């Protein structure tokens, strides 16, 4: 079974089968999985908050980086794809126990580089929390 098919088996479930210990800690639920496009749902936990009681920007960035990494696995390439940089704009926040949705898409898929986008929304996608892009580099396994 290829990596995308594995992701699809978790639609509607927590992604407990992730090879990433960090992603298992973030504990997303897979909403949708297509080649180059993922949608994961998260519940904001107390340990993710800043001193003001809002979702910490570093956790937002970690979700962003982690789901984009999973998006690279959905491409089923023979290369390992690593992050070169992330650029994230923050627009809003989330509170403890709030559900948030992270959605990715591939902007450009080249021979050596991939550019991807991620948006993080509140549960009904009426409030954009963060949006950004990532450049990634393909390396041989």
Description:
The protein has 141 residues and is α+β, with helices and mostly antiparallel strands. The chain contains three helices and six strands; from the N terminus they run ααββαββββ. 21% of the residues lie in helices and 40% in strands. It has a six-stranded antiparallel beta sheet with strand order 1-2-4-5-6-3. The longest helix is centred in the middle third of the chain and has 17 residues, at 57-73. It is globular, with a radius of gyration of 14 Å. The relative contact order is 0.20.
- Reading the helices and strands in chain order gives HHEEHEEEE
Query: Which residues sit in consecutive blocks of at least 5 with pLDDT less than 50?
Result: none
Largest sheet: 6 strands, antiparallel
Question: In terms of quaternary structure, what is this?
Answer: single chain
- Provide mean pLDDT, rounded: 95
Summarize the structure.
The chain is of the alpha+beta class and 141 residues long. It has helices at 3-8, 21-26, 57-73; strands at residues 29-34, 37-43, 80-90, 99-109, 113-122, 128-139. The two termini are 19 Å apart.
């Amino acid at each position: 079974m290829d990596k995308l098919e594995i992701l699809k088996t978790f639609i509607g479930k927590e992604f407990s089968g992730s090879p990433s210990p960090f992603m298992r800690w973030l504990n997303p639920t897979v909403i949708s999985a297509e080649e180059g496009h993922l949608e994961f749902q998260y519940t904001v936990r107390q340990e993710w908050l800043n001193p003001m009681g809002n979702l910490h920007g570093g956790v937002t960035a970690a979700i962003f980086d982690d789901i984009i990494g999973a998006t690279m696995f959905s491409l089923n390439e023979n290369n390992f794809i690593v992050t070169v940089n992330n650029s994230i704009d923050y627009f809003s926040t989330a509170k403890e126990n709030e559900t948030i949705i992270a959605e990715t898409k591939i902007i450009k898929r080249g021979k050596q580089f991939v550019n991807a986008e991620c948006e993080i929304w509140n549960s009904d996608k009426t409030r954009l929390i963060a949006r950004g892009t990532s450049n990634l580099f393909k390396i041989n396994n």
